[in-house]
Design goal:
219 residues; Rossmann fold; four-stranded parallel beta sheet; 4 strands; globular; binds zinc ion
Length: 219
């Protein structure tokens, strides 16, 4: 593991490429813990940092994100788009004084607006950052995320409680979701179906996600 915080300051290279896992604390259905997005972003960063070697380091994860659409479920803690954008901007302003490059590695779709905003602001200040989306092809607490967690942290997956949620296409759900959040379309918080999830599939998905990020880092 190549964690930034493990390096005493004289060993922090001026060529550092800093990967910042960007997650959320939000409901992930009746069978997954609240930090799924954070754990996935972290695992992808750690995998990419090990594979890329050199001066790639993983920053402490951002465990809170913009999760307003999940606010109808207990456990969700959202700081919203505006606050998240500000956190991202300030974090990058600070880290860029010593890091060569900063890449926000995001595993929660709801954070996208904040990332776009922060990147625009930082680019205008002459401090370009990149952001990379972890695209596992799934939706929310469905087969893909459940598989990833079965691979990463199986003791925290309650498969017996796993149930399908809203399985209609996202386009059909969006108007109701915009008005009433995820709760309006899926009483159990799942978008998609976790059926068929496995640790083996999770390992494959993670390998793909790591490969994608290594490509971004090398580009
Ligand atoms: Zn998620």
């Amino acid at each position: 593991m190549r964690r930034l915080v493990d390096a005493p300051w004289p060993r922090v290279s001026p060529r550092t490429v800093l990967l910042v896992p960007t997650g959320s604390t939000e409901q992930h259905g009746p069978h997954l813990p609240l930090d799924v997005d954070t754990r996935i972003a972290q695992a992808v960063c750690e995998g990419a940092a090990s594979a890329a070697g050199g001066a790639v380091r993983v920053a402490p994860a951002l465990e809170y994100g913009a999760s307003g659409e999940h606010q109808g479920f207990a456990g969700t803690v959202s700081i919203g788009t505006e606050a998240l954008a500000l956190v991202l901007v300030e974090l990058a302003r600070s880290a860029r004084t010593w890091a060569d490059r900063i890449v926000f590695v995001n595993a929660h779709g709801g954070n996208s607006d904040a990332l776009v905003r922060a990147r625009a602001q930082l680019t205008a200040e002459g401090a370009p950052v990149r952001w990379h989306a972890c695209r596992h092809g799934g939706r929310h607490a469905d087969r893909a995320e459940t598989s990833l967690m079965l691979h990463l942290d199986p003791a925290r997956v309650d498969l017996a409680a796993a149930r399908a949620g809203a399985v209609e296409p996202l386009d059909a759900l969006l108007p109701r979701m915009r008005a009433g959040g995820v709760r309006a379309v899926s009483p159990n918080g799942v978008l998609g179906d976790p059926a068929g999830a496995s640790a083996a599939e999770g390992a494959e998905l993670l390998a793909d996600l790591v490969r994608d990020l290594v490509r971004t880092v090398g580009a």
